[in-house]
Each structure stands twice: as C-alpha cells, then as structure tokens.
Amino acid sequence: MTAEEIAGLVGLLVGVMVLVALSVFESHEYKRSHGGEGIVHHWMAEHHLLDWRHRH
Fold it and tell me: What is the pTM of this model?
C-alpha cells in the first residue's frame, strides 16, 4: 500500500465515524424532543405501516 492509499482509507474511516456519531446524536436529540418516540417509529406511524398490527 502506498501512502496515498493509506491516507485515503484513513480519511474514509474518519468520515464514516463522523457520520455515525452525528446519526447517533440526532437520534438521541429527536427522542428527547419527541417524548421518547424514535425517528423510525414516527416515520412508520406517519406512513400507516404500524396499522397492520391492529387489524384483525
């Protein structure tokens, strides 16, 4: 591996770590401001994907 390849991999790793950290932070902030409801649950409820559990 050349120094440029290593630098590219390090940059990619740092970028992925920042993306994951921001996603976790946003998820916690969303839950805190919406009374414990998660983003995915909110999206599924808005698009009526949770209704199948209540139909008989």
Answer: 0.63
